Amino acid sequence: MSEEPQFRRIEWTTVFAGTMSEAIVCQGLLGSNGIHCRILDHNIKVIDPFITGGSALQVELQTPSDSTDRARELLDWRPPRLTDGEESVVPEQARVEKVGQRIRWSSVTVLTAPYALWLAPEYLLGVRRLGRAPRNHGWTLAAIAFSGATTISIAGLFLRR
Known about the structure:
- There is one protein chain.
- The protein is mainly alpha-helical.
- The chain has two domains: about 10-75, Hypothetical protein rpa1041 (Alpha-Beta Plaits, 2-Layer Sandwich); about 90-160.
- The protein is about 50% helix and about 10% strand.
- It contains six helices and three strands; from the N terminus they run βαβαβαααα.
- It has helices spanning about 20-30, 40-45, 70-75, 90-105, 115-130, 135-160; strands at about 10-20, 40, 60-65.
- It has a three-stranded antiparallel β-sheet with strand order 1-3-2, with helices on one face.
- The protein is elongated.
- The termini are far apart.
- The relative contact order is 0.11.
């Protein structure tokens, strides 16, 4: 009789959480450095991300527990955020980034585009107070411009009648 093969159980640890596009870039970085990794629920997040609940657009990148330290070391390449001297984000920057995210999401549909314009002054004043552009600043400015053009176009349609 031959012995049955013994399979090693792999313990997985999350080393990154973010959007699918960011996770794929990080997965490529880790893979090119010989670290095996996976995106948790990758297939379902691609097919129907909203079936997974509230954080539909958030994914987790995982590595085997024995590779966690090396993976986190490699993932420290991301641009630094404003900090208050420790490793936490300045509350004002976090608030401005959240307003920017609301603007970007609001600009997606015609119905919510005016809301994006309503948030624009708060965002732009927050950026001015920070003294530097937060993450995704260019996309937020594009979303504001798109919302303005969308709102003006829709208003023009109603005024012609």
